[in-house]
């Protein structure tokens, strides 16, 4: 029996897109180990993998993202901050996971393609094939979030760059992985990649080569997410709107109050997931047809939803498209703004700047999308692209091809 390992960073937007791949591999008879923090392990274990928990040194993702110099454009200072965090994390995780797998080396390793340095370095040290998992837009010489002037400001002479590159070189030498900093960065975009969006949603998708496998979303059902029943009269005859800002920038009480005020007088059913940092009790004037909960089973709600008011995190965007639901996007950071720009450009929804959200603007945007059937038509077309991308079975095929290349018997 082949042994396939996943190494991921702690974050729902990185772990959730791989859960379906794990379940598919297990169903095909592979043994799967998954290294991530215990907090993120429930879905992985439900999918059939053996959890290999590690202790992270990173601050919670939400805190790191809230410390960005600018939420509108990723700056060089932000880049330096992220690199320093990855150096610290890799120095801590590499020996942890090297020991954890010392007597049970995997045959293939799947690692996060954005921040999964530990997985990439261990695969190199162990001499096994590896594949990157990319949960958002991919990057090449024709397009990347970091080099597109719309979403990032990069200063090549920034004083922190040389210092952090020196720290990376010292880290590589200290770990003894046999790579220089130049080799490490030079190979960061090489090798096969599983991109969890359809090629049609990718900026400049036609420019990506055959090593980029645009398999689309690979989520699993997340049955542990809990139960949900529709607000209002439950008849399903009224439009259903889901509201969520994800798991990081979800502490904006003013935003959720604006949603209550926007939808209170409308003949719609509304479900608001406010996260664990907003007390639903502080929201005023919440009518019976507006359901406010800390968390909801998002996939379950999207199956019935007519509109999704979302922060435009890629996982949420792909889940919305998977169920044919148009969006009102309210991005909270530059990466999400790129996603929102793409969905607006493809006619899959509209976007509001987070500082422009009022009860009136939100109500107007929601009404516009629900009233215009062309949004639904284009979303259904993209849903077709999502399905044809192949999802978890297509991703599993790519991973199995690496087993064949490595001469591993199933």
Structure at a glance:
Its EC number is 2.4.1.-. This protein is an alpha/beta fold and 410 residues long.
Outline the structure in words.
The chain is of the alpha/beta class and 410 residues long. It folds into two domains: 3-216 and 390-405, Rossmann fold, CATH 3.40.50; 226-388, Glycogen Phosphorylase B (Rossmann fold), CATH 3.40.50.2000. It has 14 helices and 15 strands. It has helices at residues 12-27, 41-46, 61-66, 76-100, 117-126, 159-175, 181-186, 253-263, 298-302, 314-322, 334-345, 359-371, 373-389, 391-405, and strands spanning 3-7, 31-36, 50-53, 74-75, 108-112, 130-134, 152-153, 193-195, 212-214, 240-244, 269-273, 290-293, 307-310, 327-329, 349-351. A seven-stranded parallel beta sheet has the order 3-2-1-5-6-8-9, sandwiched between helices. A six-stranded parallel beta sheet has the order 12-11-10-13-14-15, with helices on both faces. A two-stranded parallel sheet has the order 4-7. Helix 4 (76-100) packs across helix 5 and helix 8 crosses helix 12 (359-371). The protein is globular, with a radius of gyration of 21 Å. The protein starts with a strand and ends in a 5-residue tail after the last helix. The relative contact order is 0.13.
